[in-house]
Design a protein that fits this description.
CATH architecture of the domain at 13-157: Alpha-Beta Barrel
CATH class of the domain at 13-157: Alpha Beta
Shape: globular
Number of strands: 11
Helix content: 25-40%
CATH superfamily of the domain at 13-157: Phosphatidylinositol (PI) phosphodiesterase
Order of helices and strands: EHEEHHEHEHEHHEEEHEHEH
Length: about 260
């Protein structure tokens, strides 16, 4: 599901991208328990993360293919055991969390999950089956192959976002009906950038066509308040941000923020 359970909750979804990677208080700690705890403390109910699988099959919440950029270790995740990954520290202090740890730590949260490797397809599908957690996630991927494999494996139980070819249909085709026919109703949400170079992807037309087919539109990764207001004025249904403080303030100013209880 892509919208909050209760009809009295705000209708615009706020996603903490990698836990809010560039919030000043947690910068350098993306995709860590500390980052996600911080986002939840601000009131975020929707957490965005990525998944890879270790050599021995453990599903990690981690963006990069290799450890090198954000940890004090090096090497490809797919060639590293979970025990070895646990020795790596992000920002000199935080371990790489497993997806299971995130689900257990934040039982009220929903997760937007980006499949970052083909090995993660079966691992994530199995994880969701084991926990019967199909309605806690939206799953996406930039890889058409991975998205098709995941949809085949989960047989419609899990909401998925449009892969790049499906997004292109909504950008290029002149009508919602044609876009729906081409995508065969497979995606349940469009998750797109605001722009690609000079091309405006998250246009008013795209939002209109998506809504005509019952699809939400989420835009990533937006850190500028003026851009947030512009997209909200276009009617987008969700924003992903690294600056969780800025998005919270923008939504507060529009009466669209629910304070944490």
């Amino acid at each position: 599901m892509t919208r909050p359970d209760s009809p009295d909750r705000p209708t615009v979804l706020a996603f903490a991208h990698r836990g809010g990677a560039y919030h000043p208080e947690i910068e350098g700690l993306e995709n860590t328990m500390a980052a996600f705890r911080h986002a939840v403390s601000l009131g975020y109910r929707h957490l965005e993360t990525d998944v890879h699988v270790t050599r021995d099959g453990v599903l990690l919440a981690f963006h990069d293919t290799v450890l090198d950029r954000v940890t004090d270790r090096v090497g490809p995740i797919a060639e590293t055991s979970y025990a070895e990954v646990q020795q790596a520290l992000i920002g000199g202090r935080e371990r790489v969390p497993t997806l299971a740890e995130l689900f257990d730590a934040f039982p009220a949260a929903r997760f937007n999950i980006d499949l970052k490797s083909h090995g993660a397809v079966e691992a994530l599908a199995g994880f969701l089956d084991e926990r019967a957690a199909w309605d806690r996630v939206v799953v996406g991927s930039f890889s058409v192959r991975r998205m098709r494999a995941f949809r085949a494996r989960t047989a419609g139980r899990v909401a998925t976002s449009a892969h790049p070819l499906e997004v292109a249909a909504y950008v290029v085709l002149p009508s919602a009906r044609l876009a729906r026919r081409l995508t065969r109703d497979r995606p349940r949400v469009l998750q797109v950038p605001h722009r690609r170079g000079r091309l405006v992807v998250a246009s008013s037309g795209l939002v209109r066509r998506a809504h005509a087919n019952g699809l939400d539109v989420h835009v990533w990764t937006i850190d500028d308040p003026d851009e947030m207001h512009l997209l909200l004025d276009r009617g987008v249904d969700g924003l992903m941000t690294d600056r969780t403080d800025i998005l919270r303030d923008v939504l507060r100013s529009r009466g669209l923020w629910e304070e944490p209880s």
